[in-house]
UniProtKB/TrEMBL annotation:
Keyword Transmembrane helix (UniProt): yes
Biological process, per Gene Ontology: cell migration; myoblast fusion; small GTPase-mediated signal transduction
Positions of the DOCKER domain: 968-1341
Protein name according to UniProt: Dedicator of cytokinesis 2
Natural source organism: Chrysolophus pictus (Golden pheasant)
């Protein structure tokens, strides 16, 4: 069982395996090659056989690798290339269809590719395979497996999936995960923040099993680090001390250090260890022991020594991925999706691609030193950081604690209890819009926190610090450590930006201004700089828009100070290379903007050129060689200076001229080294210029060239057509022009027919041919709509146009590329799933167009006989069903016009003769036979029908009518089929065959659906023309059918239809008034079933033998369903009256069956074998039983149906005796139940039944069975019958309690005048009972009410199912009894049914 997806397209469902498409392609290819491989073996082509075998082995091995799903991305890509190359090469040498692919090796979808692109793809694929074959002829195929894995990607990512966190905390926690370099004691990535709840689950329950992060931007330098750890710092959020009781008097929400977890991932990073997304790693947890255990310090301790975690820690999955975040989402979609958190490196990746805009500033709280002043103990300092504007207002959501967390407006640090010099080492990110950078600053507030809530509420900020993010010269804050000034004073003034922004922000600033500050400096605006307190942070700017270099900033913003442009261009050469490549796109844009905006002069041309050479030289440096791809991408995607080529070529020529004269030219060497990219800029600039200037001119020139009629310019015209391809790509998106011109349609039909006949594409271009055919099909159908609208009416009818249409459609349907039966199974399935069988669609269109011609059909007889004949020879069943009726319509059309069909006759004979000479009919002999038999069958049925039209025998007319309507059903002529259904219905009503009339109309309802759509004309009937929708028509038909079933006393069938109507009324149309009427009607039918006596129908087998009978009866056997109370003699007389000259052949007995809805019948007759005992005929009475199976079940649309099969079986005398005894016992039991249930039944039937058994003088009883079978002679001659003999004895023994029960009932009901009769019968029974119980044992029968048999039934069911498996004897009789007696009227009441089951259970214990 394979996983699949279901693609719904219009009204069809396409089941697609969930395997990757290439695996499906390999499977299909192996299937197709396999059949060819066998044929190569049969034809003894050993060399090609071995070649194909080798290729198939390769594909099978590679398919296994693809299915394994364990290959890395680069190896998978390499394997896909091998597979597609092998498939394409193999298809070519085996002369199979060409497969066209995109750049990634995927099969091109013609639905998503323009026709011109598809054509070019075919050309390219053909050329590649041709070259490959040439290579194969000169050298062996290269061994792809020998190529080592390439890991040259400059960017890598680490995927981490947090499976679980197990730790006994009891409060909420924050898990900060990051990458750590233990050698340099630095964090190298952003934190990934997971908020963990106190109950052991993530705070956001939706994140459960979805805690995934990708640490990206890792370069080769990061991979070459000596050690890399994955660390997790755990911060507890709650009380100051976990020992404090969890009550309101203690301060809550404090961020307290709790511990760390560390995992060495060096080998995973370097690819030396297993990197599997399924393997889980355990990272042990190490708690903070003392307040002096700062989290960052604890990391270095843990990496040096390992302790016991007590089972507490993190469970994670780790895998190394190749590529940046965009590439990993593409290559590893099962791991990295849009919900996966991305944690970037603290710093730039080794390559910054154009479009990778970043503006992140990382702030790390390093350490502080705070005096306790008037406090008795050291302070527990909390740092509160926010981003403020120049007015001191906090900027909302500008701080992010970690990747995966929502931004906040302020950040509160971890709290170390009463520590004078806390070391936080906490890193967070500040994200501010570039336009706000000039006016914002960071503000740090310091507050003492108390464990007591009452005291903590009274605490205020005791100090503050701040720092601007941008300098006065416009550059960004320098990376590195910043020793900030700690400001003390009024806590309210600390929030007043005008008070503190005038004070120095760093200690370095104070020293540079030579400010002399005492222990507590003088107060400025209510604040002072404290020399007793210290606070240090570090910053790291990762921005592609903000630079820390003054010279580069001046160049990027050259328009602000154009007078400094020359100076800034010259300073560019001394800017650090790393800073330049970070802003590569912006720098190049600035250079070319300077060049273009000074296009009228050459003042800055040389300076810009030299700056460009410097940048190209930087990228050529090994240190920045990965930026080659960035420069290439810039030239192709972002560069837009259309006139730059002039200035670049001018400066280049100047340098070359100076150098060629032997003069000193210092930049020439750098220029020559950068010449490749200089010319790339020149060529790209010139190309852009050409597109803008020349494109309008091209169409004019092409038009003039194509209109020339000079045959010598074939090559030029070819180039013109190729150039037009790109233009057509655009024009193909426009709406088509409406078609209303007769001449245009005529020419188009002729052109299409010509293209179809010429096979313009190579035979292996299957996709191209099918796309062309699909375009033709859509066009032909579209043109057909126009023809129906404008060229069909008498005044506008165009014979030649319609003739061209029909010949084009036939040419389309008979072309070689659509004859699917001639293709391999794989190709057949491929075309069927993608395009379907277009022949069927166009065939249906031809049929519909033909019938729309009306009286104009005669114009195409006999001209269209030949083309239609070609269509009928196509071995497609549905197509033949659609087109063969056209022949009959031609015959009818010509006959109505001329009274004969000589033209059709002559033409069909002529064309058949022509096809025979051409070999087509010989090759399609079976189709010829089908066609001839269809024509012959129709003519026979029509002649039969005409013969009996005036016949007095309605039975014969019914038979012929059924034959005709079945024929029209087979050839899908619904209108004719329905017409004859109603003819048959009317015949039944004339004969009062209401049941058969109901079944006949039921066939009409099977063509309808419960829908509110308008009825199609062909499914309507004249009787119900008022019905507009399918639902209305079907409802009216059901009501009429129910009426007929009611008259025919087939209430079970009527109830079934009532229930279907009731469901519609209740659940679809919500018409409860009709529903109530329906339910009343059902109740009436149920009452009829229970109260009205329905005689069981008799069935008669009739055979018609001899030439005197009509062909539809001749030499056939039928089973007839008799009418109510119809005796065999009456039935025979009625048959003989129809055929007075026929001779009646008497048989021993007629077939009988006591149930409806059956098609299997049998009758039995005695046969004497061996010596006959005149005193005991049972010993030699064998039974010959004949079984019939009819074509359809009775009752049905006729009162008789033909017998389609007959079989005979023989029953031995002993088996006959067992069967007779079993039936007798059941008859007694049934009668007992009837008399128990109904006190009004006459006693005579019971008297006759009982007396006939207990009085030997009447029937002889079972004594003759004893004489025939219970003798030593019989047992000796028939040793295998012992089990059957025991069964017969058991049945005899069981008859006694049944008879006893019957006699007791008889005693209660017998009248006084019959009392002597009863007494004699009772006396006989006593003697019989004594004799039987002595010989066969006693049996006991308890007559019970309804409930007791129900319990017996429930008890019996397990035995029944058990015995059905074990072939217990009970199953042999019980199951047939249950099936045979399921007709409700076979029992007096439900008690009869259960008594029968109880009896069978008791009989077999």
């Amino acid at each position: 069982i394979k996983e699949v997806t279901v693609e719904k397209k219009r009204h069809t469902e396409n089941v697609i395996p969930a395997e990757i498409p290439l695996v499906q392609e390999v499977t299909t290819t192996l299937w197709e090659w396999g059949s060819i491989w066998k044929q190569l073996y049969v034809t003894n082509k050993k060399e090609r056989f071995q070649q194909v075998q080798s290729m198939m082995y390769d594909l099978m091995e590679w398919r296994s690798q693809l299915l394994s799903g364990t290959l890395p991305k680069d190896e998978l890509k390499e394997l896909k290339q091998k597979v597609t190359s092998k498939i394409d090469y193999g298809n070519k040498i085996l002369e199979l269809d060409l497969i066209v692919r995109d750049e990634d090796g995927n099969i091109l979808d013609p639905d998503k590719t323009s026709v011109i692109s598809l054509f070019h793809a075919h050309e390219e694929a053909t050329n590649k395979i041709t070259e490959r074959i040439k290579e194969e002829m000169t050298k062996d195929q290269p061994d792809y497996a020998s190529y080592s894995r390439m890991s040259s990607s400059p960017t890598h990512s680490l995927y981490v999936f947090v499976r679980n966190f197990v730790c006994r905390i009891g409060e909420d926690a924050e898990l900060f995960m990051s990458l750590y370099d233990p050698q340099k004691l630095t964090i190298i990535s952003e934190n990934y923040l997971v908020r963990w709840g106190s109950k052991g689950f993530p705070k956001e329950i939706d994140m459960l099993n979805n805690l995934k992060v990708v640490f990206t931007d890792l370069g080769n330098k990061d991979l070459s680090r000596d050690k890399v750890y994955l660390v997790c710092q755990i911060v507890r959020v709650g009380r100051m001390d976990l020992k404090d009781s969890n009550s309101k008097k203690y301060t809550q929400g404090l961020r307290r250090p709790f511990g760390v977890a560390v995992m060495d991932i060096t080998d995973i990073i370097k690819g030396k260890a297993e990197s599997d997304e399924e393997k889980q790693h355990f990272i042990p947890f190490h708690p903070v022991v003392a307040e002096s255990d700062f989290l960052h310090s604890l990391l270095s301790k843990i990496t040096a020594s390992k302790g016991d975690s007590g089972g507490q820690g993190l469970w994670v999955t780790v895998k190394m991925l190749v590529g940046d975040v965009i590439q990993t989402r593409k290559d590893y979609p099962h791991l990295v999706d849009r919900t996966t958190v991305v944690a970037r490196k603290l710093g730039f990746p080794e390559i910054i691609m154009p479009g990778d805009i970043r503006n992140d500033i990382y702030i790390t709280l390093l350490y502080g030193d705070f005096d306790k002043y008037n406090k008795t103990t050291q302070r527990s300092v909390e740092v509160i950081m926010c981003v403020c504007d120049e007015e001191g207002k906090t900027m909302p959501n500008a701080v992010c604690l970690g990747a995966g967390d929502k931004p906040v407006s302020e950040y509160r640090s971890v709290l170390y209890y009463q520590v004078k010099q806390p070391r936080w080492m906490e890193t967070l990110k500040v994200a501010v819009p570039i336009e706000d950078m000039q006016r914002v600053h960071l503000r740090f507030m310091f507050r003492h926190r108390s464990s007591q809530e009452s005291k903590d509420k009274g605490e205020k900020n005791f100090a503050m610090a701040y720092i601007r993010l941008m300098k006065e010269d416009g550059t960004t804050l320098q990376d590195g450590i910043h020793d900030l000034s700690v400001l003390k004073g009024d806590s309210k003034k600390m929030e007043d930006a005008s008070a503190y922004l005038t004070l120095p922000s760093t200690r370095l600033h104070i020293e540079n201004k030579a400010a002399t500050l005492g222990r507590n400096s003088s107060i400025v605006g209510g604040l002072s700089v404290s020399s007793r307190d210290a606070f240090c942070i570090s910053t790291l700017v990762c921005s592609t828009k903000l630079t820390q270099n003054v010279g580069l900033l001046g160049l990027l913003k050259w328009r602000m100070k154009p007078e400094l442009l020359q100076e800034n261009l010259e300073k560019l050469k001394i800017v650090d290379g790393e800073e330049v490549v970070k802003f590569l796109q912006d720098t190049l844009d600035a250079l070319f903007n300077i060049m273009m905006e000074h296009s009228h002069s050459n003042e800055y041309d040389i300076l810009v050129f030299d700056a460009l050479i410097y940048i190209i030289g930087l990228i050529a440096d090994r240190k920045f060689q990965h930026f080659n791809t960035v420069l290439e991408a810039y030239i192709q995607q972002h560069f837009s200076a259309t006139l730059a080529y002039k200035k670049l070529m001018s400066v280049l020529k100047t340098y070359l001229d100076i150098s060629s004269r032997g003069e000193q030219c210092e930049p020439i060497l750098r220029t020559l080294k950068a010449l490749e990219y200089v010319f790339k800029f020149i060529v790209r600039s010139r190309t852009l210029f050409s597109q803008d200037i020349l494109l309008p001119v091209i169409t004019k020139e092409l038009k003039e060239l194509l209109e020339q009629k000079d045959d010598q310019q074939v090559q030029e015209k070819k180039y013109c057509v190729e150039l037009l391809n790109s233009i057509l790509e655009v024009l193909s998106c426009q709406d088509p022009v409406s078609i209303d011109d007769n001449d245009f349609l005529m020419e188009t039909f002729i052109m299409f027919k010509d293209l179809i006949g010429k096979n313009v594409y190579p035979s292996d271009w299957m996709a191209m041919s099918m796309v062309q055919n699909r375009v033709f099909l859509r066009a032909i159908n579209k043109f057909a709509e126009t023809m129906n609208q404008k060229f069909l009416e008498n005044m506008n009818f165009e014979v030649q146009l319609w003739n061209n249409y029909f010949h084009l459609a036939v040419a389309f349907i008979t072309q070689d590329s659509l004859q699917l039966e001639n293709f391999s199974h794989a190709k057949y399935n491929k075309i069927q799933s993608k395009y379907g069988d277009m022949r069927r669609l166009i065939g249906f269109a031809i049929r519909d167009m033909w019938y729309k011609l009306g009286q104009n059909k005669i114009c195409f007889i006999p001209g269209m006989v030949g083309p239609i004949l070609e269509m009928t020879l196509i071995p497609e069943v549905e197509l033949r069903k659609a087109t063969i009726p056209i022949f009959f319509d031609m015959i009818l059309c010509e006959y109505q016009r001329t009274g004969e069909f000589k033209k059709f006759e002559n033409e069909i004979i002529l064309k058949l003769d022509h096809e025979v000479e051409g070999g087509l009919v010989h090759e399609n002999k079976c189709l010829q036979d089908v066609f001839v038999s269809l024509v012959k069958g129709l003519l026979e049925k029509l002649l039969d029908y005409r013969t009996v039209m005036n016949d007095e025998s309605k039975d014969n007319r019914m038979s012929c009518t059924v034959n005709l309507l079945n024929f029209y059903k087979d050839i899908n002529r619904e209108g004719m089929y329905i017409r004859y259904l109603y003819k048959l219905r009317d015949l039944h009503l004339d004969c009062e065959n209401y049941t058969e009339a109901a079944y006949t109309l039921l066939l009409h309802t099977w063509l309808l659906k419960w829908s509110d759509e308008q009825c199609a004309p062909q499914v309507m009937s004249t009787e119900f023309q008022c019905s507009q929708t399918y639902r209305h028509l079907k409802e009216n038909l059901y009501e009429k059918i129910i009426e007929y079933f009611d008259k025919g006393k087939m209430w079970e069938e009527a109830i079934s239809l009532c229930k279907e109507l009731a469901e519609q009324y209740e659940k679809e149309v919500f018409d409860y008034e009709l529903l109530s009427q329906n339910l009343v009607q059902q109740a009436k039918f149920y009452e009829n079933i229970m109260k009205i006596l329905r005689p069981k129908p008799d069935y008669f087998a009739v055979g018609y033998y001899g030439q005197g009978f009509p062909t539809f009866l001749r030499n056939k056997v039928f089973i007839y369903r008799g009418k109510e109370y119809e005796r065999r003699e009456d039935f025979q007389a009625q048959l003989m009256s129809q055929f007075p000259s026929a001779e009646k052949m008497n048989t021993t007995s007629a077939p009988g069956e006591d149930s409806n809805n059956v098609h299997r019948f049998h009758y039995s007759r005695p046969v004497r074998k061996g010596s006959v005992d005149p005193e005991n005929e049972f010993a030699s009475m064998w039974i010959e039983r004949t079984s019939f199976i009819t074509a359809y079940k009775l009752p049905g649309i006729l009162r008789w149906f033909e017998v389609v099969s007959m079989s005979q079986t023989t029953i031995s005398p002993l088996e006959n005796a067992i069967e007779t005894m079993s039936m007798t016992n059941e008859k007694i039991l049934m009668m007992i139940n009837q008399y128990q249930s109904d006190e009004n039944l006459p006693i005579n039937p019971l008297s006759m039944l009982l007396n006939g058994i207990v009085d030997p003088a009447v029937m002889g009883g079972f004594a003759k069975y004893e004489k025939a079978f219970f003798t030593e002679e019989y047992i000796r001659d028939h040793p295998d019958d012992q089990e059957k003999l025991n069964r017969l004895k058991d049945l005899i023994a069981w008859q006694i309690p049944f008879l006893g029960a019957g006699i007791k009932i008889h005693e209660r009901r017998v009248s006084d005048n019959l009392r002597p009769f009863h007494d004699r019968m009772e006396e006989c029974f006593k003697h019989l009972k004594a004799k039987v119980e002595k010989q066969y044992g006693a049996r006991e029968l308890v007559l019970v009410s309804f409930l007791t048999p129900l319990f017996h039934f429930l008890y019996l069911m397990p035995i029944l199912f058990f015995s059905s498996k074990q072939k217990h004897p009970i199953n042999a009789i019980l199951v047939p009894a249950l099936l045979a007696k399921r007709n409700k009227k076979a029992f007096g009441n439900i008690s009869d049914f259960f008594q029968l089951i109880w009896y069978q259970n008791a009989k077999y214990k």
